[in-house]
Amino acid sequence: xxxxxxxxxxxxxxxxxxxxxxxxxxxxxxCHHNPELEEIETLRCQExxxxxxxxLGFYKGGLGPRWNFMAITVPECLPERLGVLGxxxxxxxxxxxxxxxxxxxxxxxxxxxxxxxQGALTGNIEQAASGKRAIxxxxxxxxxxLHKEQATVTMKAWAKFAELGSGRHHDTHFKTEAEYIxxxxxxxxxxxxxGMVTFGMAISIPEDEVDLAHELANVAYLNLGxxxxxxxxxxxxxxxxxxxxxYVVNVIWVLMEEHNITEEQAKDMCREKIKQTIVDFxxxxxxxxxxxxxxxxxxxxxxxxxxxxxxxxxxxIDCPRYHTWSSYNEQQLDWMKNGIPDENGKPSxxxxxxxxxxxxxxxxxxxxxxxxxxxxxxxxxxxxxxxxDTGIVNVFAAKGIKDLKAMRxxxxxxxxxxxxTNGTHIKGTDTSRTHTNKRHINGTHxxxxxxxxxxxxxxxxxxxxxxxxxxxxxKGIREKAIDAxxxxxxxxxxxxxxxxxxxxxxxNASLMLDDLEDGSHLRxxxxxxxxxxxxxxxxxxxxxxxxxxxxEVQKLGGAESIGIxxxxxxxxxxxxxLDLHWTNNLICPSVExxxxxxxxxxxxxxxxxxxxxxxxxxxxVKVDVIRFLNDLGRYFQTRDDYQNLVSPVYAExxxxxxxxxxxxxxxxxxxxxxxxxxxxxxxxxxxxxxxxGRSNAAHKQTMLALMEKSGSLAFTAQFxxxxxxxxxxxxxxxxxxxxxxxxxxxxxxxxxxI
Length: 754
Fold this sequence. Notes:
- This protein is an all-alpha fold.
- It has 32 helices and 8 strands.
- It has helices at 35-52, 69-73, 79-100, 102-122, 131-146, 148-164, 177-187, 190-200, 210-242, 251-259, 263-290, 296-318, 330-338, 352-359, 395-401, 406-412, 455-470, 477-489, 493-518, 529-533, 535-556, 559-584, 591-601, 603-615, 626-646, 648-654, 658-662, 667-675, 680-692, 697-710, 712-738, 743-752, and strands spanning 10-12, 30-32, 365-366, 369-370, 414-416, 422-424, 522-523, 526-527.
- The strands form 4 sheets. Strands 1-2 form a two-stranded antiparallel ribbon.
- Strand 5 (414-416) and strand 6 (422-424) form a beta hairpin.
- Helix 9 (210-242) packs antiparallel against helix 11 (263-290), helix 17 (455-470) packs across helix 21 and helix 18 (477-489) packs antiparallel against helix 19.
- The longest helix has 33 residues, at 210-242.
- It is globular, with a radius of gyration of 28 Å.
- It starts with 9 loop residues before the first strand and ends with a helix.
């Protein structure tokens, strides 16, 4: 039995609304009913730090635009305890950033340990000269008011965490995964997390079961550590660069060095380990819940950790702390700038804008502007609305960058040449760099002069729009189709992964361009890429991805692969040009012309993956799957057009009848135009859409009603049903030719059926 607890304070979140990257199968996401309780106290902790300790710049901690950390990692937290835990957790994030700066970390650990030991022993933390001590005192006081015994247990656990872990070995260059994992199991905050979960859920584990509880939870804590390392790697890497280190204290770096592999290969290894911990811990929860010799509270603790795993993963995937493309929602930004509301609902007047001016002579930077004023140009994107700098470098490490002397910067750009003399090297222009399997932070030139490469800065920026789109929920139909086709073709695993990557890159790049060209403001329920990064950056990033895909095709080997790639890429562009031409010039195509456009635009990607798989098959049986893939592409696009008009899920993710906003001639609209050729107000509505840039809600409702009245929606549904039968027949013919039944492809067709 995996679920024993009664859930009173949280609800399961619809899995179609968030992404897990396949790393948390079988564990749902739960979210607290009152996440704002954490939100306010999290920001209060930041305000208190600015008042009592010092400026933070635009620090990024536990909040996210959709999910706040505690609300989804301890979703069954008692409502009256969620606020103080949000406050304490924000201090933990601040503490984590401080201890990453190794020359000051131990002193802060010692201070934290002494404070919570005192709180556990005396029931109070005496205020010292340290501003941090005032923050710690506030946490202790609020927790002790709620439940003295459980608060005492938690503070003892936190003191132990500060003593043993919390970055005390961040100056260690770990060489093997085994020694790193041993350290990470302590550093991830096993004792800190134990205190958070038990206090939040009002759990009192019997003293004679504490060791057992830790033993049972070990796999969960390994998962938390690996997940954190996977998604925080970029932040930690850039922090290490800022501090001039030649290593990163992260499992990704350790795996790269130990196995001499690339960053992406190391991340793949990490992902597989995460998946295994999920399988293992779910079994531990089932076994624990079925035991009769374990207390109810220990069972609640272990089951509660299930949701810590899913919550930590979902938060890590799109939080501003780890991702440059992620920002905060408007309410959070307002509170950050102007202060959280007091008991009368008025801003406290101690947001980052006030605090910054009070503590620093530097202007507040917000997206390249000062004091929240948007720059004159924003790459064609929307105004910044006060959005602040999105850098992810640890704020405490970043402060050290300002102390660099001009001579030191100049020194680091001069590196010894092969003959031992000094040659000038301009950062970011080293075209002679050898390609290694690992991304090094510092140069390895003779003479030992350290040089931080800036190549990664440009890559980070150009990848950001693509990474944002890739983070959005996706059904992954094309990747599933590749796996399904490989039942017949048996392409070697490494080449199959390259084909998947090529398909994924091209698909996402085309979505970035399509949304911009079509004027679509939503993608999978989230803002389209160009509405966040601007038109110029989106186009540039998409073009870069097309070159990335070409590089992957080259790895497959052979001129045939390049030819396939260029053929189908040209088809994609031709199909999109037809779509845009008809829309922009109010030309209604025939059904046959529409299907030809779809065959180019949507079928192109399906043909690309099919032709590449065929080219690299290890099977002697060569069967042409192009007719099947062409019809599958037609079905897929027409189904999408139909769902855009009738599906509530599509309306939520892309907006109500978004295709009518874009003026696209989908099959239902083409049928309607053919059925009502002399209807003047239909054409006038389309003309007004072109003039205004979008259709208003009343016009869309009218057009939808006309489609229903004229039978256009019914016609499209019948067309889809007939096409589905045709695709199924193609599949049966292919199964006969290959001599192998393909249940994977049958499953895809069943999933796509209307």
